[in-house]
Amino acid sequence: MKLKLIPLILASATLLPGCFEEKSNDAATTAPAVSKEDAVASVNGVYISKKTLDTLEKEIAERSQGQTFPKEQLLEELIQRELLIQQALQKQLDKSPEVIERMATVRNSLLSQAALQDYLKANPVTDEEIKAEYDSKMANMGEEYKASHILVKTEDEAKKIIAELEKGGDFKALAKKHSIDPMGSEGGDLGWFTPDRMVPPFSEAVIALENGKFSKEPVQTQFGWHIILREDSRALTPPPFDAVKEQIRPMLQRQKAQTMIENLRNNAKVEILLAPEVKPAEPQASEEPATASEAPQAETSPDAQTPAEGSPTAAETDSTAPAEAAADEEPQSQPKPAE
């Protein structure tokens, strides 16, 4: 059965340098020799270790979100790589300046990662630190709101609807009758949402209202004019600690790593040798009008007096400019109910 080569570019970045180092004459970088007892295959007398296969299998699972491959297929990948490496060494490609530079880059990347891993191993994130971060974030979760709204095109329309509401009009019925929002047919119901899910003017108006009250003044957003009814509010329920514990850990690890790097930077002697970028100077308009002798003279030929065929007139240019500007603006979504 013919096994296909697995495209493992990311994994290759860690495995290939190791394979080159295994054949290096530099004793400081030579990998431990592999015995036949610890090998899973031999390629022209060169053993491939069980550890190499296990490492590849682990990396594949991590980088492919748990997807696994048969060991035979992974081993075939390693065999084909070893054949390519032996071919490269036979042609002395490892002595090529380009390859040497790339191998040095990969080596430096691995060493920087190893330094971080070593620091985090010596300074692990504790359960107490995770719990403290959880308590801090959960204490400031804020509230979520349940609201409905009526969206109309003009402020005058909105004020007329507010007047009807003040006379005892039914909000849901008025929303079905007047709202241009898709949720108008549902009485303007937006369901439960957090303030960050709505545009700022809308959220600010909702927060300022009391439960059961509607806005006495129309609220303007890029979508039009809103009349908002805040129906209810409640404190956000935090997720259980055990459910988010392992999501908090990587964040705290990144914070610790960043602190470590900042300390190294503060205690190091760093000299920036890169020349600062020079931005080109912007042309400045002349403050004085051109004199009669400097001003360009318009030609008086009939062709110069007649607009070129197909070119827009000033009126046409003015009339099309707003449409072009509007087309460049990125549309924003209207307030939507929380899922």
Automatic annotation (TrEMBL):
Start and end residues of each PpiC domain: 142-232
Low complexity biased stretches: 281-300, 311-325
Catalytic activity: [protein]-peptidylproline (omega=180) = [protein]-peptidylproline (omega=0)
GO molecular function, one term: peptidyl-prolyl cis-trans isomerase activity
A matching Pfam family: Rotamase_3
InterPro entries in UniProt: PPIase_dom_sf (IPR046357), PPIase_PpiC (IPR000297), PrsA_foldase (IPR050245), Trigger_fact/SurA_dom_sf (IPR027304)
Listed PROSITE patterns: PPIC_PPIASE_2 (PS50198)
Organism superkingdom: Bacteria
Keyword annotations: Isomerase, Rotamase
Region (Disordered): 280-339
Catalytic activity, EC: 5.2.1.8
Protein family membership: Belongs to the PpiC/parvulin rotamase family.
PANTHER family noted in UniProt: PEPTIDYL-PROLYL CIS-TRANS ISOMERASE HP_0175-RELATED, PEPTIDYLPROLYL ISOMERASE
Protein name (database record): peptidylprolyl isomerase
Organism (species): Methylomonas methanica (strain DSM 25384 / MC09)
